[in-house]
Amino acid sequence: MAKPGLGVLLAASLSAGAAQAADAPFVGQWRLDPARSRLPDQMKIANKGGGAYAFDFAGEVETIKVDGTDQPGEGGTLLSVKQDAPDSWIVQRKQAGRLLLRASWKLSKDGRTLTDHFRGIQPDGAPFNVDYFYRRTGAGTGISGDWRSFKETVISPFSMQVKPFQGDGLSIETSTAHLTKNVKFDGRDYPSEGPDARPGSASSAQRIDARKLVITSKSGGKVTATEDFELSSDLKTLTRTQHIVGQERPNVLVFKRT
């Protein structure tokens, strides 16, 4: 399963060495403030009969049998779902022999809410864990149905860093994504770098004012997300609002300067 994207994150500092650059306030190290952040999620699960279910995690629909075996999923991954009990399922995703995530789903007794203990594993083995709480939004029985999160608790806060790029641009690195996005304010797309960068992924940036930027991310030439980054007046807090294509509600991530 794929939770809301966490790939492009910004940071800021006021180091003397960067003070001459127009985007100096956006350069530095930041850490997520979980209490002030939201990572809303939505998913659809449809019973196809014969033990098969279609899973829509706001991306490519994946249809597999719920029997605990690894089966082809999106992006070259393997997806497995096991029914531990009538109200409890275990979801796992792997790639190239490596476990990417393990999620434990628990349905409430009245069937109206679903708890998801999402446990992601980054390439370096570090965890990225979030507890999601969903409410049923339409018809459905058991775990089948349309689910929309009403609360998300980030257990593993992450950091991000921004460095100067070619004088007047920004190079954005994240601890969760193992990916670097380079951008300049010239209207051009610049390719992403790093082990988690997908082929054909690129980003461009637009400066709104001294404390606000908009970054547009693309994959294969198609827009996948637009993100607003805004600094507080004291330059100690950065709010990132991420609008992901296909996702109804934006992620709102609030960072503190470290």
How does this structure look, described?
The protein is mostly beta strands. It folds into two domains: 119 residues, Calycin beta-barrel core domain (Lipocalin, Beta Barrel), CATH 2.40.128; 113 residues, Lipocalin (Beta Barrel). Helices cover 0% and strands 54% of the residues. The protein is built from no helices and 20 strands. It has a ten-stranded antiparallel sheet, with no helix packed on it. Strands 4-3-2-11-10-9-8-7-6-5 form a ten-stranded antiparallel sheet, with no helix packed on it. A hairpin with a 2-residue loop joins strand 17 and strand 18.
Brief rundown of the structure:
Helices cover 0% and strands 54% of the residues. The chain is mostly beta strands and 258 residues long.
Uncertain parts? 4-22
Largest sheet: 10 strands, antiparallel
**Sheet with most strands: strand arrangement:** 14-13-12-1-20-19-18-17-16-15
Mean pLDDT: 87
**How many β-strand stretches?**
20
Strand-residue fraction? over 45%
CATH homologous group name of the largest domain = Calycin beta-barrel core domain
The CATH topology of the largest domain turns out to be: Lipocalin
